[in-house]
Design a protein that fits this description.
Blueprint lengths: L2 H5 L7 E4 L22 E4 L6 H13 L25
Antiparallel strand pairs: 1-2
């Protein structure tokens, strides 16, 4: 991805990923046109958007599914020690 893409991301970046299972307990993976690898559906949380809203939007955009039931799985946070936080 280009440097411009990363420069335009929110300063505190959040992303979501969703595990979608069928009746056989098989997980759905996707191959998007903008990545060179297989992945789970998901993406970057936009400003003033909750992770749940992001998950529903991204799944609709990427694979056309309207999720009706979303079960929360987990949250992870990694502090970027190298981030400047606007200080000199």
């Amino acid at each position: 991805m280009s440097d411009d893409y990363y420069k335009n991301l929110p300063k505190k970046r959040m992303g979501v990923g969703v595990l979608i299972f069928n009746d056989k307990e098989e997980v759905l993976i996707v191959k998007t046109s903008y990545k060179d690898h297989w992945s789970i559906a998901g993406g970057v949380v936009e400003e003033k958007e909750s992770p749940k809203e992001t998950l529903i939007r991204e799944v609709k955009e990427e694979i056309g599914l309207d999720l009706k039931e979303v079960k929360f799985l987990s949250v992870d946070y990694i502090f970027d020690h190298d981030y400047n936080h606007g200080e000199n």
